């Protein structure tokens, strides 16, 4: 069209690319909009109108550009587009959505420029609009594809992690835990549970769940009709897509799905082999996972799920082998440990105790061992509470009769396993125990228990034999030692003591003996046979008899030892026995002794300190390497001398060198010089070795002749008074004091000592009382001294003082620093 | 505990207490308790001291107590001490009443039964 109105001749002359600007504006390949700064549309081209379906008149002057946008983009327009335009005066490629006249949205890209007036105030906005529908479609597709790729990648990462966890899980429980954690991150499952096959019990055990409130959470037999059992039997993946499907095939599953609000369930068998070789694959468990919404699983996902089942199955298989191995190792270690623990004890009762203590709590919560030994039998219990005693007794009788173990089974009322304990074809008794239910029934476990009972049988039988031998040895030893040593002769007194080893060890070969060779000649012996037990005890008996037979008035100790050397050529077990042998001429107070490899005797004469007799030493009996030239040593003993023979148990102690032992013995023996002879050897043994010692101790103490003057020191203990009387009686007899005088002196002396203990030392248990007695041709004089604080004779002891006064002729009480009571009684009956 | 020093038997109406060995401060208390446990309800008591080899004032005190208690209840008691011996000496030194002593156990039992 020309402004002149005539035909436009120039039009023919236009080149095809020489566009008419108006036409170009209206039909440009993009939409044009011109708006006022407030957005009111003032001009729009045809292209835009064609795209959007609006009438020009509907837009111009009536609507703003933002009014054409979908609601979301209206906000975007206000928050991004408009501010950006105002600041930069132009915007490019802003993606917006325009609402068409028919209401449908169309994606567009927009460029705008803001024209400003001379003062800089906004004047007009020009906008080009491009249709971006297809481009946005590509973008969306791209995004979707990326999301899928990301999900797959995530799934693969989760599965890789699970596979790594499975490889690291050493036990069945840990494998189960790792598998259980897979479905939620990998497939967006809502929850998952795992069931494992227990082959021994033919059961499927529910072991773990991420949400135990879902599902039927009971163990089930493998033959069960439940979905889990069905899948375990079939060995192939089963997906229950929806409730209707579940209803049709597995009503039990449908019920739990309804109850827990699940729409899709996947049941995945955990198999040892690849799915293609189903025949060879073993199902070790089932992983069940479910979705709160219906879930379609793609082929790719199903492949991955199957792979998970195989990986988990293989890990389970490996863990089971590992568990088995470990359990086998544990059992072997337990058995070895038990054998060792039983060996540490020798006695039957202690071994029985050890046995039940090993069993409880390590493999059982209660156990009892009952042995048919002795009249009453023997019984040791551990743990508890025990089962019904009557049922147990019945079962024990049954097992004892059949000599077959009865293992606990589910549903058995007794609930205990009873095993016969046998040795050498004989039933010694039974071991009953109650184990945790999961250990029941397993074949390996049963074999293990039988093994345990066998070992126990051997150990208990050995203990029984030991016990028997020990009893025989003890009684033999006791019968040999119990023979009375000579007594009642005023010329000498003997005190002996034998203390068996404290820790239940076998009897030793220590012995003592004393006998009169002639009425005037006393023989004393202490010896030690090599070895322990019955053989040592019987050898000791033979040696003892041999010494009695060899001793004669003419021979003497050296000849006697030579005789023993010959003797041990016939009785080999006597070889290397050690012996100290002495003969005492009672009238002449002369000792002749010889020591065959034995510890030296200890002598304490009334004057001076104690000394070891180191003469006349030679090797043990029958020695090959030692000196066999038997010599003897003769010495005179002052009346009142004390001679101690002893065995090595007295001085040898693990925590003390032997020379130190000799020192201590010398000191203790000297210290007890003043103590009454009666009880002396026992006291010495107590001080030197105590009660709990590892070796036998044998002592023999000889007091020779009557002391001129009896001096004793007593502890403030009423029991000491009887010991003092015993000494004093022997001393009075030795001095041929008549009966009346003796009774009176013993009474007076006892009362005086009792007074001192009761009154002077009422508050001092460590006080000592000195007693000195002298004798003359016509009288006995006693002096009793204490160093305590005299409380005055109370009511009760009044009679004591009165008795002293009555019994004795003269009594003098001197109270100074302590109290001294001096008493005198003439010899002979009272007129 | 005290069996080595004291045993009991029945002689007619009397409860017989047999003492043995040495009785002194160390064991008198325990022996006393054993005797009292058997004699508190007895109608007659015989204490046989013939086997006692030593008796001190603690033993005397014990016997005195038992005699006193039976006297109060009006029940007869005899101490059988033999012709000689440590127990007799001690009791005589303490001037125990002569009517308490008996020489022979069976004869004393007979007397009490009358």
Automatic annotation (TrEMBL), chain A:
Keywords: Coiled coil, Hydrolase
Keyword Hydrolase: yes
CDD domains recorded: HATPase_RsbW-like (cd16936), PAS (cd00130)
Keyword Hydrolase: yes
PAC domain ranges (all copies): 92-144
Gene3D superfamilies: 3.30.450.40, Histidine kinase-like ATPase, C-terminal domain (3.30.565.10), PAS domain (3.30.450.20), PPM-type phosphatase domain (3.60.40.10)
InterPro entries on file: Bact_Sigma-Reg, GAF, GAF-like_dom_sf, HATPase_C_sf, HATPase_dom, PAS, PAS-assoc_C, PAS-like_dom_sf
Domain PAS: 38-71
Signal sequence, start to end: none
Coiled-coil portions: 135-169
Molecular function, one GO term: phosphatase activity
UniProt protein name: Uncharacterized protein
Organism name: Actinoplanes cyaneus
